[in-house]
Every structure is written in structure tokens, then in C-alpha cells.
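Support case: guanosine-5'-triphosphate complex. Customer-provided input:
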Amino acid sequence: MKRAPIYCTHNTNNMFSTQTDKENFDMSKFPVERIRNFSIIAHIDHGKSTLADRLLEMTGAISKTEKNRQVLDKLQVERERGITVKAQTASLFYQYQGETYLLNLIDTPGHVDFSYEVSRSISACQGVLLIVDANQGIQAQTVANFYLAFEAQLTIIPVINKIDLKNADPERVENQIEKVFDIPKEECIRISAKLGTNVEQVLLEVVKRLPPPSFNRAAPFRALVFDSNFDHYRGVVANVALFGGCLSKGDRIVSAYLGKSYEVNELGLLRPDEHPTEKLFAGQVGYVIAGMKEVKEAQIGDTLYHQKHPVEALPGFKPAKAMVFAGMYPMDQSDYSILRSAVEKLTLNDSSVTVQRDSSMALGAGWRLGFLGLLHMEVFNQRLEQEYNASVIVTAPTVPYKAILSSPRLIKEHGREEITIVNPAQFPDRTLVREYLEPMVTGTIITPDEYVGKIMSVCLNRRAVQKNMIYIDDRRVMMKYLFPLNEIVVDFYDHLKSMSSGYASFDYEDAGYQAADVVKMDILLNGKPVEELTTIVHKDRAYSAGKAMCERLQDAIPRQMFEIAVQAAIGNKVIARETIKAYKKNVLAKCYGGDITRKMKLLKKQAEGKKKMRYIGTVQVPKDAFINVLKRKDK
Ligand SMILES: Nc1nc2c(ncn2[C@@H]2O[C@H](COP(=O)(O)OP(=O)(O)OP(=O)(O)O)[C@@H](O)[C@H]2O)c(=O)[nH]1
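Agent response - structure generated as follows:
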């Protein structure tokens, strides 16, 4: 059913009221000057989603109920983890000085792995609200997100949130903003998104400070696809920003990327639920359903145009680049086809995941998947389990190494000298290679100064090179390091957090490749190499890494009926060994007497435990061991 647009009125008393009586509102006459497209960007947990909720409530798009907390976080994993994974969009109507304004708000995720979502969201905007926590101040992702907006030449409105907190120090944060971003502190708005304090000021400043989009409605239709998701019944729902002309139901459109044409079945605004309309006009943000069957048909960054009026494609985005690769296998091979369909459906929705079929001796048929980062991988895994009820084994993640080949045979086989290796088991031998290259990142760490010494020693331990260090105020330091990606991908962030009592923050960006002296390290269980545990390690660290991996496997693999030798080897040379002693776990040992229900319960529990195990040869390995084996302890 079509819902009437809901309006919010601003009057001189800063009071808000809701009107629902303007059903016949004609967007074709709506002046572009009264449209504002903006994103909310911030470090994780600084309050983006809470502020979005308040803005939605104040403009009447949602009601003020407890149930509506973080309505833009729709996915189960988002609600459970309290993080935003997928950017969502909402169109709000707001009355200012007797005029109606259309404010298109795009909520974005804060975690480093999802900064790709941030960059595509802001490409549909003219301005951003940069939220900073009044207690924590500027954090690593605040800096990263600021630069995304700054480089896109957007207007930035700094908003200091959580001023209600006992330890809030908005003045200190304003000084940081002035020092680090060169934005006069007078431009900051102090709010409490939780209590709603001063939030109406944010709406006012959006209208006053952000420029309207400068698009021509008389020009041919041209729209940027900035997000897309898959609906089982209706196919692809593409989120679009109209940069020119208008689009109507029934129009035939073409995707510039694939050159395929489609008929528009439905289009409308997101408020934040879909609100079908007859037309969308330049300057608006909305959704389009046009019979596309796969998300790949609505490539993020693609341009849509009218079949009869071809236009030049808009500059797209840098394609998302997978930074972490891992094998994914069904717990039980008989579930392969169920898992295949689940992976297909989930990747339909997340085009930043790369998928390649793969198979392994021990784990059977599966896939090698590429992710933007480890959290992205964990979220994908969790969604597979929760939304598709699929049980999977994820192998140790690896970063994409490169090798410059010297062997004429291999060069001929690959058709080129430089190859990228996303599976350590396929790492070419040193004798066939001129040089190995490893991916590097520039990391930004922001921390209270008392932790600087500890953090520096951990960075050194992880082969990082310091680039610079500045004080952002009298207590906080911002450090830049060049890191090998491999050194930070699995557990660096957790260590940084724990060693700084949660105060340090970290963000990184791609810094190309650098020559590296790396070797392939195999792990053997009872003499049998386990491909899925193969890793690439720096040559100087091979012994300590091998020893640590054997120790962790010794902890992770439960004792079994026979002794298990865990060995690390480089080529034919074993460099470390641990032994898991034989042991038989009789769960009924302490169960005296004839209480049969208790016995059955214990046996069931043991059977469930076994389901989480996987046979590698004769050895049972818990499924988590594959990932946990890489998590190290920094001194
Ligand atoms: N005291 C106080 N807490 C707030 C305020 N705004 C948000 N919070 C709390 O801060 C936490 C994080 O808020 P979110 O809105 O989820 O933050 P976010 O930036 O959207 O987080 P991500 O989407 O994960 O990046 C929640 O527990 C909120 O209740 C505020 O103004 N005051």
C-alpha cells in the first residue's frame, strides 16, 4: 500500500510536528535547491545510527518507540554486534521557514572493513555530518572518513556527540578538530543523540550549510547506482542517486556497465522503508527495481540511462579490493549444495566478496573467498550460519601475495611473469621465483600518550616502519606506520585494544606492494601435511611462528585415542614439534547409577561437540582451530 509522505515542520520555537495530509505532493515541481543529500560518517560507536534514529523521529519518518532503535541497522548481525555493516538510505521531509526540504540521509558503517561502503555512500552526497564522540575525541576512523569526504570535496559539518556523558569534554574535541582537520571550532555542533539534545540544530545546519545538488531535470536521465541488494521475490533493488533528468515507472533503462536494458517495474523513495512513487527526479535518491536477476547487473558505481537517450557514464568507484582470502568448506560434504546456494545468495547481496571454486584433500569441495578484511569475513560467515543455517569451516585467512616468476615453464603456464597468490598451498617455490612481494598498508593509530611505548614495541615486532607521530592535543598521539598487511590482518586490532585498555584506535589503507623475504610453512598432523593450515611467514620469523602455531594447535586439538604429532616444516625441514598425548574421554565416567536421561544428555552433548569437529586424516580438528591458529600473543 502506498504511504503518504510525512512532513516535519520547523517553526521559530524549534518545535517539531508531523503532518500527513500532503498526499498529492508533486515532486516534479519540487525545486532542486530544496534538496540536501548527506551522509553521516564517524568512527565506530560514535553514534551515527542513534543520530539517524533521532533525525528520522524528528521528521516523522518513524515513531518514537523503543522498538525503533537503530532502524537503519536492518541485518540480524548488525543488531547483534551493534555495528552497521551495510549503508542504508532514508529520505526525510523537513519544513524550514515555511518551505519543505527533502533531506536524503545515508547511514554508513564505521568499521575499517566497510570503509568501501562509506566511499560509495558519499559519492551520492554533497555534504557529511562528521560525528565525534565528546569523550573519546578523534579516532583513527574519524581521520580516515574525514579524508574520504574531504577528497570528494564535500561540505563537512562536525558534530560533537554524547555531550551528556559525565566525562564529555566537547571543548577538547573541538580543539582537536581545529588542529587535525583545520575546521574552525565554531563550526562544531554539540549534541546528545541519545537524549535528543540540540539535534534539531543539526537539521537546521544541514539545510543552511550544505549545498543543494546541481543537476538539471531537463537533461537526459542519468543515475548512479551507489548500492544494491537482492530480494528473493523482486530481484535486485538498486539504490540510485539521480544526476540528471527523471525516471518513470515503465521506462526502459540501460546499465552502462553491461549494456543490458531493463524495464522499470517499481521505483520510489526510501523512508527508510520503500515508498513507491511514480517518478524520481534529478537530485533525488531512491530505489529502482527493473527485473535485474543478480546484484552483478547493478554494479556499484554503474550508470543507468534511458535507452533512447544514451549519456556518458558517471565516474564510477574504485572497485572494492579483497584484502583477505580464506577457504570455506561445508562441515559435512553432503551439505555442499546447500552451502553453494547459500554462498551464491549471500554474494548476490554483497558484491565486494570474490568467489572462486576450490577443493582440498582434507576438506573436500569448497570455495576460496576474498573479503575486505577479517571482520567482513566473520560477518559473512555469521550471516551464512544465521540466515542460511549453513555450517562452515573457514580456513586460516591469508593476504594476497605476489610472485615475480623466473621459471620459463611457470611463466608460460600463467601467461605472465607476475602472479597473485591467494592460497598459500599454491605458493611457488623459491627456486622458481625472482622475487616475492607482499601487500603493505599505511596504518593510523590514535592513542592516549601513556601507551605509546608499548604500542611502538608491538609495531616493531610486527615489522612496521614508523612514518610520523603528532600530538593531536596535550594527551593524545596520532602515529602513522607502514605495515605488512599480513602482520595486522588477524589480531592486531584486538591486541592494540587490550594493551591500551580499549583507548587506542586503528585504521589502515592500501599502500601497494613491497619486496619481502617470505617462505611457505607447512603444518603436519601425524606426518601428513594439512594444506588448509599452510601459511606464508617472514623468513626471519619462521622458527618462532612455527613454534607458536604448533603450541596453539596443541591447545586447540583435543586429546584423542592416539598420540598426535603436530609439526611445522619449511620444505622438508621440520622446524617445530609438539605432541598431543592420547586420551579417551569417557563422558559417562562420573555418571553413577542408572539415570538414563542424564546419560543420554551427556552422550548428546558429546555428539554435538563432535559435529563441530572435522577429520583431517584420522585426527579430529575443531573447526575454529583453522582461524585461531593464527592468533598470536604480543609480549
Ligand atoms: N550517552 C550517550 N550515548 C550515546 C549517544 N549516542 C549514541 N550513544 C550510544 O553509543 C553506542 C553506539 O551508538 P551507535 O549509534 O550504534 O553508533 P554507530 O556510530 O552507529 O556505530 P556503528 O554503526 O557500529 O559504526 C550505543 O550504545 C548508543 O546508545 C549519546 O548522545 N549519549
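Residues 251 and 264 are 6 Å apart (CA to CA).

Case will auto-close in a few days if no follow-up is received.
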